[in-house]
Design brief:
- The chain is α+β, with helices and mostly antiparallel strands.
- The chain has 3 domains: 79 residues, 3-Layer(aba) Sandwich (GIY-YIG endonuclease); 100 residues, no CATH class; 63 residues, no CATH class.
- Helix content is 27%, strand content 21%.
- It contains 8 helices and 12 strands.
- α4 packs antiparallel against α8.
- It is elongated, with a radius of gyration of 26 Å.
- The chain starts with a strand and ends with a strand.
Amino acid sequence: MQPRVTSVGLILRHDPSEQFEYPDHIDQDSLKALPSKPGIYIFRDDKDRPLYIGKSINIRTRVLSHLRTPEEARMLQQSRYVEFQRTAGDIGALLLESRLIKEMQPLHNKKLRRTREMCTLRLGPEADASPEVVYARDHDFARTEHLYGLFATRKAAVERLRAIVEGERLCPGLTGLEAMVRGRACFSRQIARCAGACMGAEPLEDHQQRLRAALDNMRIVVWPYEGPMGIVEECDGWRQTHVIDRWFYLGSIDHPRGKLPVKRPARRSFDVDTYKILVKPMLRGELRIEPVRL
């Protein structure tokens, strides 16, 4: 904490952190061993059960910040030690954190703890196609074209579609949100909230083009490779290759061993968390991607 100089002299500002005492019930050796490097960390209780899994580009700094957070008092009271696992970069930490939370189901990771079956909006290539809600159990999201948005429930998908229709003055009847009667305008047209494609005031082709344009920023990117690919990260001369197939994280290869440390799952499918971690940096060209042999 920097001192402050006033007209009456030097005033020392008190730094509250100087009197902070780390919880003595958490093993001090486990805290001292934490590296200032990327990776994941796990708070565990007295029965070795995982309480919370997190990630950081600086494990030590992040864990110590938990110990200073009053809002996490309940988790800290249950904790007895902290373990960690290094990764060669932030992407590896994000992928490993996501997978371990699903596998280990820690008590205090509520957002990522459950594997969700997602749904999406599908708008086929046909000229008169209407959006429909489809599920991951029926479609491989990593390989299927014309999918838009990722939603945890059908209700959320329909609400998002309704917001787009209202915002763009599209027709609720032609988008499947409202029953249509042939030869009659939809209710939204009657109150001037639809551009009139339902009754020919707007060409159907123009309506569909506007609908696709409105959905496009939610388009699910099809896995752009024939098979698995490796995302390479390096730290202090240590190289890791994170193996991804169809937006599913298979594991990381620690060089020079050159083999996946875990058995590959027999069944793998589109993983929403892996997709969200990777799709934007991949499209921006920020990732070092190389072919891998498994």
